[in-house]
Design a protein that fits this description.
Chain lengths: 177, 328
């Protein structure tokens, strides 16, 4: 295996991967909920970095705005407003064994999946338009697909989100009466 | 020379990155030091006082004396505080405030400016991370005033982020781009403050709330909450919270200048000087409001954002779209 050339991109990828994996592992091994919320913020930011490295800067920034900004804050809010005593270490039981088996199975499946795909041919698997009309701007690429090819699915998703939002408000109000 | 990301990683490029970062950092620290001095002098003039006048001629070195004092203070962590969170809270707040400066186009030649395709979104996204540091620091302090301040801060900053982003959408529609450099170039004929006056008004109000400046300084309302989320902080950790606040004022001034006031455009003077004047106007406005406005009532704060500012900014987007289609 040839050692990859050490461009800024390569180093950035390695550092970001370290941040993502490190935060994810740290999240699993901390015992306090608020640390977990902070660590998952680190995972979100790292994943946004990977999106940016893949030239999907709009998705990357949306990830930072929505997940790292809003959702992490919501989690912190919920944790701060509820009381948390000292969390005890949960003893090993059937549930733990089942989750270890499931996670191991998923790992094996992913390993098998990555090894059976011929990555040398990835360019032909997802063909790219040579000169798209929107140029290199990922914002325009996203807008182009949302407002031309996928308009109806996009609007349907918006309707579902609004229904969920209104439903949440109604459910929350019912308790007051 | 400034195409860094796709180059081989040589010592020269590393040196270039480090020098660029240090230059931007020292410029911004100088601006912050003198905007604190300007704040104290302007407020003093409005209150018919004299203001700082002891350290150096006209008190010009007062800010440096204050910074030195804060840096030399003992680093106190309260006994009942959550130590790790207490220590990293100020850093989480400060780092994004410095990172957003990457997309502010100070000069006509874009020295040290990242011409991101998603520049505006980058600014809004990163500035939303700073709230995490404030909330964490407040929670870790284990103090009721801190927690109330932190909760207020989170609620206020999240609510006012929406009208801020929606008012900027009007500008993005007019310019047809999220790249701040392209937005400035689209203002060659007319500054966007003229067609976007509604959006600009919403932007200024939401920006003051985002920065927690005076009509909206509830997170650290000193007469009710001691000092809000920073009550337990002292020394250089407190300095980091202060620094983040003032860096955000400078950055928001830069953003306002780029989005509405034509950025570096202007006759006679070089681009960076015009940029400084326009951003300086915004910074002056924040201090002016501080000297003239009372604090808004807590119960009115959320209502104002959700029931007044957001409908107005959505109306502004619709109007902008209609006018743009009608003109084209």
């Amino acid at each position: 295996m040839a050692f990859p050339q050490l461009t800024g991109q390569m180093i950035a990828f390695m550092l970001i991967s370290l941040v993502v994996i490190g935060s994810a592992v740290a999240m699993l091994f901390t015992r306090r909920v608020i640390y977990m919320a902070l660590m998952i913020g680190g995972v979100f930011i790292g994943v946004a970095g990977i999106y940016v490295l893949l030239n999907a800067d709009f998705i990357g920034m949306a990830q930072v705005l929505i997940y790292a900004g809003a959702i992490t804050i919501l989690m912190l809010f919920a944790i701060m407003l509820t009381h948390h005593g000292h969390q005890e270490q949960t003893p090993v039981n059937g549930h733990t064994i089942f989750s270890v088996v499931a996670a191991g199975g998923l790992l094996g499946l992913l390993y098998w999946g990555f090894n059976t795909v011929d990555w040398a041919k990835w360019q032909s698997m997802s063909p790219k338009t040579d000169a798209p009309e929107w140029g290199t701007s990922s914002v325009k690429a996203v807008a182009n697909s949302i407002y031309t090819q996928y308009t109806i699915p996009f609007e349907l998703v918006s309707v579902i989100l609004i229904v969920a939002l209104v439903g949440a408000v109604i459910l929350a109000r019912k308790e007051e009466n | 020379m400034f195409e860094w990301l796709n180059q081989p990683f040589t010592p020269m490029t590393v040196l270039g990155m480090v020098i660029g970062g240090v230059i931007v950092l020292s410029v911004i620290l100088l601006v912050v030091a003198y905007s604190i001095y300007a704040q104290r002098k302007i407020l003093a003039a409005m209150h018919l006082r004299i203001g700082p006048n002891r350290v150096g001629p006209f008190g010009l070195f007062q800010s440096f004396a204050d910074i030195l004092k804060l840096l030399l203070k003992e680093d106190i962590v309260p006994a009942k505080a959550d130590k790790a969170m207490f220590l990293i809270g100020p850093m989480i707040t400060y780092v994004p405030s410095f990172m957003v400066l990457a997309v502010i186009p100070y000069t006509a030649t874009h020295l040290f400016t990242a011409e991101l395709n998603v520049g505006v979104l980058y600014y809004i996204a990163l500035s939303s991370i700073s709230v995490i540091g404030v909330v964490l620091g407040a929670w870790a302090s284990n103090n009721k005033y801190s927690i109330i301040g932190g909760l207020r801060s989170a609620a206020q900053l999240i609510s006012y982020e929406i009208p801020l982003a929606l008012s900027i959408l009007g500008v993005i529609l007019m310019a047809g781009s999220m790249n701040i450099v392209e937005i400035v170039e689209a203002q060659k004929n007319m500054w966007f403050i003229v067609p976007q006056i509604i959006g600009f008004s919403v932007f200024i109000i939401a920006a003051m709330a985002e920065l927690s400046r005076v009509p909206f300084d509830l997170p650290e309302a000193e007469s009710e909450l001691v000092a809000g989320y920073s009550t337990e902080y002292s020394g250089f950790r407190f300095a980091f919270y202060m620094l983040a606040e003032y860096v955000y004022i400078t950055a928001m001034g830069g953003l306002a200048a780029a989005l509405y006031l034509g950025g570096w455009e202007g006759p006679l003077l070089p681009g960076w000087a015009w940029y400084g004047i326009k951003a300086g106007l915004f910074i002056f406005l924040t201090f002016w409001l501080q000297g003239t406005f009372p604090r808004i009532r807590n119960t009115l704060l959320m209502t104002f954002s959700w029931k007044v500012l957001i409908p107005i900014s959505i109306l502004n987007i619709i109007l902008t779209a209609i006018i743009k289609i009608a003109v084209a």
